[in-house]
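Teaching assistant's notes for section 4

Start the section by putting this record on the projector. Ask students to predict, before seeing the second block, whether YtxH domain-containing protein will look compact or extended. Collect guesses on the board.
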Amino acid sequence: MFLFRLVFSPFRIALFVVRLFGFSRVVVFLLGVAVGLLAAPTTGAEMRARLMAEVEARRDASGPPPPPADLVSPHASG
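Reveal the predicted structure now:
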């Protein structure tokens, strides 16, 4: 029973999303994803390597990530 649920869960989730957002919106979203993948400036292998390097860099960094520059006040003390 567990294997059956595991196999068919993605279909149930997809059906729920289509019912929630509407068929035409889901189709437009998927077309946008397809166009984005076709117009991507790098190959999949290059993008995966870049993402893995970014993930490793964030894992190796000690402490929480710094706040974005636009949120930091130039007059903040500390």
